[in-house]
Design goal:
The protein is of the alpha/beta class and about 350 residues long. Helix 7 links the parallel strand 12 and strand 13. Strands 3, 5, 6, 9, 10, 17 and 18 form a 7-stranded mixed β-sheet that branches. A 6-stranded parallel β-sheet has the order 13-12-11-14-15-16. It has 2 domains: about 200 residues, Alpha-Beta Complex (Quinone Oxidoreductase, Chain A, domain 1); about 130 residues, 3-Layer(aba) Sandwich (Rossmann fold). The protein contains 11 helices and 18 strands.
Length: about 350
């Protein structure tokens, strides 16, 4: 078939299995799509959750959803994108439901199917191993690979002078933390912020809190080295136990997914304060909240997916913050060669590295 290419990809054959770097065959981009030669991809906690089978995705699978690279080929109706464009990749959305029309694609009606179903959507191009299809397009990307075929809605074009590998994590982890603070909560100068968890999402929330002008930014984590980085990024106080955090706070962002933290976090909300739930919580988990405390204090508990932002609008703003030195991503990133995907994932799982980024061979 014309324009069918050979690619390299890190394949998982079963939940918990190690990555296997393999040569696969990729179909050309279809209408409204582009093939991107990937330069880098961040390693996200959600990749680990999918790898463990906690999110039911089909296997064999190709993970990776913080891709960055250069457009190599385009299909019909690819809009203003052209081969040679440098792009960041983000999550998939349908583009026509109410949430998408309202620039809230993280709440797209088809979000789960498009981002975790993995299989080709509506006859989309596929990837094959020895003639057998491999589910791909996780988060619209499957970017633990040398190439990805993506819908144009997942791409944001950036200046060719900018470092693709450094900016790769913007497409999920960074936009989730920063978007929660700047767009969903709309933290105002003078308001206080507490962030639970000093991973990439939490530290992005800290950086965003500083950008927003929050004079008090508290950070909770059990890893001392992460807390130290948090202080460098703008946290004004740190703690390893939530009992050490003295409220009240105007805004609290939980990125840990630890349900046991939610009740004490809610108790530390100021009147009219908001607790934003950003972590990966067990589906069956619950936590007690007093209806009276919600009502009488005008408090809110909200869920946030991908920061509640539209990547096409928000990623350019994050890029500008990076340009101006307000988003020092280098402080949270460690680069790994693509072939070290297993090592990078283990470093992420252990908490040793805040944001591993796989760098593909040039």
């Amino acid at each position: 078939m014309r324009d069918v290419i050979e690619i390299a990809a890190a394949v998982l054959d079963a939940p918990g299995a190690p990555f296997s770097i393999e040569r696969l065959v990729m179909d050309p981009p279809g209408p409204g799509q582009a093939r991107v030669k990937l330069h880098a991809c961040g390693v996200c906690h959600t990749d680990a959750v999918m790898r463990q089978g906690a999110i039911p995705v089909p296997f064999p699978a190709i993970l990776g959803h913080e891709g960055a690279g250069v457009i190599e080929a385009i299909g019909p109706d690819a809009g203003y994108f052209q081969p040679g464009d440098h792009v960041l990749l983000s999550f998939a959305s349908c583009g026509h439901c109410h949430a998408c029309s309202d620039h809230q694609p993280g709440y797209c009606d088809a979000f789960f199917a498009l981002n975790f179903g993995l299989g080709p959507q509506d006859g989309a191009p596929g990837i094959r191993r020895n003639g057998e299809p491999i589910p791909a397009r996780v988060f619209g990307q499957s970017a633990f690979a040398s190439h990805a075929v993506v819908d144009i809605r997942t791409m944001v074009r950036i200046d060719k002078k900018l470092p693709l590998a450094t900016l790769a994590p913007l497409g999920c982890g960074v936009q989730t933390g920063a978007g929660t603070v700047l767009e969903t909560l709309q933290v105002q100068p003078g308001q206080s912020l507490a962030v639970l968890g000093a991973g990439a999402v939490g530290l992005s929330a800290v950086m965003a809190g500083k950008i927003a002008g929050a004079p008090r930014i508290a950070l909770l984590d059990r890893h001392a080295h992460r807390l130290e980085v948090g202080q460098e990024l703008g946290a004004t106080e740190i703690a390893t136990d939530i009992a050490e955090l003295a409220g009240p706070f105007d805004h609290i962002v939980d990125t840990t997914g630890a349900v046991a933290l939610l009740e004490p976090a809610f108790d530390r909300l100021a009147g009219r304060g908001t607790l934003a739930l950003v972590g990966a919580y067990p589906p069956s988990a619950v936590f007690p909240v007093s209806p009276s405390a919600i009502m009488s204090g005008g408090r809110r508990v909200i869920g946030v997916v991908e920061g509640g932002i539209d990547p096409s609008l928000f990623l350019p703003a994050l890029v500008e913050h990076y340009r101006m030195g307000r988003l020092p991503l280098e402080k949270i990133i460690r680069f790994y060669p693509f072939e070290a995907a297993e090592e990078a994932m283990q470093a992420s799982d252990s908490g040793e590295v805040i944001k591993p980024v796989l760098v593909m061979e040039a």
